[in-house]
């Protein structure tokens, strides 16, 4: 599989449209979950811009688009996923558990937002099984990948909804596939796979209407 500006833009535009359609079918309880495809669409469009910047095909503020994409990848999702799950969950015990994930996610987003916006970010193109972008935050500590995966995947497992539990499993599976086969740019690759899984969110919102 080869990742490129075309792949990112195609995925991003599809998810942007899917995200709007998903949001229109949502209601208050699943409001935040319904925004997942939309935000992944925005993220993929940003990475498409980063590909073009690196290829010098467009003249944009590279620092802004790279930092914003990196913020989505490293900082936003570990906070937003627990928030979405806690707002949906009605079971009191599961809600308390998801609130713990949310507190950890809040700590994560504050810390990594600081690292991202107050340090330089290098972007490297790596090609192995496919091509991908590797984002390196200067002067930062190494990301705890287990903690990251726990925050973006586990909260869905503790919502009590079967579709979201399956979504949790495939999110974790895509993470491990990215680490094994696309280790040279696992973050960018995982976000691509996770974005593609957004169709499950649309299916979940649709079933909630029935």
Description:
This protein is mainly alpha-helical and 210 residues long. The protein has helices spanning 5-24, 31-34, 36-54, 62-88, 92-117, 145-157, 162-181, 186-196, 198-208, and strands at 121-127, 131-137. The protein has one domain. The chain contains nine helices and two strands. A hairpin with a 3-residue loop joins strand 1 (121-127) and strand 2 (131-137). The model has no long low-confidence stretch (mean pLDDT 84).
Spell out the key features of this protein:
210 residues, mainly alpha, 2 strands, globular
Short description, anyone?
The protein is mainly alpha-helical. It contains nine helices and two strands; from the N terminus they run H-H-H-H-H-E-E-H-H-H-H.
Residue share in β-strands:
5-15%
Continuous helix count: 9
**Could you describe the largest sheet, including whether it forms a barrel?**
2 strands, antiparallel
Strand count: 2
Q: Name the strands of the widest sheet in spatial order.
A: 1-2
Shape: globular
Strand-pairing-aware structural class: mainly alpha
| Domains, number | 1
Radius of gyration: 17 Å
Q: What separation lies between the terminal Cα atoms?
A: 37 Å
Q: Which residue ranges are poorly predicted, with pLDDT under 50 across at least 5 consecutive positions?
A: none
Order of helices and strands: HHHHHEEHHHH
Oligomer: single chain
| Overall pLDDT | 84
Residues in helix, %: over 70%
């Amino acid at each position: 599989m080869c990742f490129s500006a075309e792949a990112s833009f195609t995925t991003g535009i599809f998810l942007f449209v899917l995200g709007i359609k998903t949001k229109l079918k949502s209601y208050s309880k699943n409001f935040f979950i319904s925004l997942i495809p939309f935000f992944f669409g925005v993220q993929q469009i940003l990475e498409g811009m980063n590909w073009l910047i690196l290829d010098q095909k467009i003249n944009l503020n590279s620092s802004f688009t790279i930092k914003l994409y990196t913020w989505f990848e490293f900082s936003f999702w570990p906070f937003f996923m627990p928030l979405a799950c806690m707002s949906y969950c009605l079971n009191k015990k599961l809600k308390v558990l998801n609130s713990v994930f949310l507190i950890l996610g809040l700590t994560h987003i504050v810390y990594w937002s600081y690292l991202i916006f107050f340090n330089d970010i290098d972007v490297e193109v790596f090609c192995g099984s496919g091509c991908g972008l590797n984002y390196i935050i200067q002067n930062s500590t190494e990301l705890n990948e287990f903690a990251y995966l726990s925050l973006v995947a586990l909260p869905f497992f503790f919502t009590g909804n079967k579709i979201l539990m399956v979504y949790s499993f495939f999110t974790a599976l895509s993470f491990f596939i990215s680490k094994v086969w696309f280790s040279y740019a696992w973050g960018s690759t995982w976000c691509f796979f996770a974005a593609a899984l957004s169709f499950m969110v649309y299916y979940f919102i649709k079933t909630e209407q029935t």
